[in-house]
Amino acid sequence: MLYINGEWIDSKNGTFQVTNPATGEILSEVADGTREDTKRAIVAAEEAFHSWSSLTAFQRSDYLYRVYNLMIEKKEHLAEMMTKEQGKPLKAARNEVQYAADFVQWYAEEAKRVYGEVLPAPRGDQRFIVLRQPVGVVGAITPWNYPISMLTRKIAPAIAAGCTIVLKPAEQTPLCAIETMKLFHEAGIPNGVVNLVPTNNPAEVGDELLTNETIKKITFTGSTEVGKMIAEKAARQVKRVSMELGGHAPFIVFPDADPVHAAKGASLVKFLNTGQACISPNRIFVHKSMVEPFTKTLVERVNKMKAGNGLEEGVSIGPLVDRAALDKVNNQVNDAREKGADVVAGGSRLNDDHLKNGYFYAPTVLTNVSPEMKIYREETFGPVAPIIPFETEEEVIAMANDTNYGLASYVYTNNLKTASHMFEKLRFGIVGINDINPTAAAAPFGGMKESGLGREGGREGILEYLDTKLGGFSI
Ligand code: NAD
């Protein structure tokens, strides 16, 4: 169903199928939104903008708190839907729903902290006042890998600021988006404030969002390739843009770190969501003296991971999202193998009886990875940990920064000087120092270079939806 102006409606274009990537089973048929549907949603959002932006911040905050409470109440239902539609194990899905709800709660609070400023003016008879106002109607495009939190990370700050929004979810995960939107409906958010247009034709719906003059801001999370195209189109109308794009995170283990502890961290963060995370470590740089103990622990842990349907007890590795994802991972691993890497764990598709209808790839560890391999340069988005030895700090900084991506990075060290040096020198928007989870609703998340523009979360997240207006008063 489409959700437009507070109503659940069908599309003239019919429906498209949504499948479970673990079993191949068809889960549901979803309305296939069109350009016309998108136009209607934009009109509804525009009509709602005036009254929504005129509410007090306290009133908007109350609505968001209601959504938060419903999300916590329905956590189990949302998590089960996510596991079926996206594939991550149930425990990880529960964590994501909590993370998603955290953004709603955080922006329920931040709605009340949109402060202006009074500035010193150059003339004695002049006063400068800065006011922050909502940008208007927002167009949002989201990915499938975090199918609920990537929605609330945009909707919550946008509507807290007083904007209204039209959201296009990824075609692989519209059901999670629909279940999330039901909570906004149940919370009594006025008609037209939030609108959802699922579609199997992202280019058509996306084009309307990008070319319709009513949309004043585009917020996008997805691949760098699509993000560049979107930023380019948005520029034609000088729409404001936020871009959360791909990553190629380095994970660096210095000789003073405990290699077992570091390998434990690597195994937890690398295989989270089957490696399908923008902050997933993609290049694991381990000091030469630590490669052996680090690899031994990592391989031991990887070999204990159980792949399967995320609804089953004990499963820690879900499927990849589709056939294309499986082929990409296979291609990178084969390329690395041909160019001299050693496969010390995994290295192939999982085809056992209970897995053969899903897109499962064995958690994999590669050693002796070198710069001429594809996996050294390309985002993997799969369960493969490539280990690259290094000798000096200078050398590893150069290798880590030698990428057009700049989202997350990780460093393991017990030396304060090294930690502080790395924090300053790494050209990444997020640096985890002995920390594999440097994300939270309160923290600014985002990338440098081709990983993005702007930040989501934290105090900065709401500024993305506000215009700055200067008032000069001659008195
Ligand atoms: P994708 O770029 O293929 O798709 C993302 C969204 O863009 C989807 O909704 C898709 O339907 C839409 N889209 C695709 N073509 C479009 C077009 N022509 N016009 C308008 N919309 C279009 O990316 P994906 O495969 O869904 O997600 C994986 C990528 O997202 C990875 O690169 C990952 O690193 C990145 N990602 C980044 C973050 C972050 O916060 N930086 C978070 C999650 C994922």
Measured by DSSP, the beta-strand proportion falls in: 15-25%
CATH class group of the largest domain: Alpha Beta
Largest sheet report: 7 strands, mixed
CATH architecture label name of the largest domain: 3-Layer(aba) Sandwich
Q: Give the beta-strand count.
A: 20
User: How many domains is the backbone divided into?
Assistant: 2
Helix content: 25-40%
Hetero groups = nicotinamide-adenine-dinucleotide
What is the rounded Rg? Answer: 23 Å
Ranges where pLDDT stays below 50 over 5 or more residues in a row are none
Give, in spatial order, the strands making up the sheet with the most strands.
14-15-16-13-12-17-18
What spatial form do the alpha-carbon principal axes imply?
globular
CATH level 3 topology of the largest domain: Aldehyde Dehydrogenase, Chain A, domain 1
Structure description:
With 475 residues, this protein is an alpha/beta fold. It folds into two domains: 2-245 and 449-474, Aldehyde Dehydrogenase, Chain A, domain 1 (3-Layer(aba) Sandwich); 249-433, Aldehyde Dehydrogenase, Chain A, domain 2 (3-Layer(aba) Sandwich). Helices cover 40% and strands 21% of the residues. The chain is built from 15 helices and 20 strands. It has helices at 35-54, 57-73, 75-86, 90-110, 149-161, 174-186, 202-211, 224-235, 259-270, 291-303, 323-338, 374-377, 393-401, 416-425, 458-463, and strands at 2-4, 7-9, 15-19, 26-31, 117-119, 126-134, 137-141, 164-168, 194-196, 215-221, 240-244, 249-253, 281-287, 342-345, 364-367, 384-390, 408-412, 430-433, 452-453, 466-474. A seven-stranded mixed beta sheet has the order 14-15-16-13-12-17-18, sandwiched between helices. Strand 15, helix 12 and strand 16 (384-390) form a beta-alpha-beta unit. Helix 2 packs across helix 6 (174-186) and helix 3 (75-86) crosses helix 4. The termini are far apart. The model has no long low-confidence stretch (mean pLDDT 98). It binds nicotinamide-adenine-dinucleotide. The site of nicotinamide-adenine-dinucleotide has 27 residues, from helix 7.
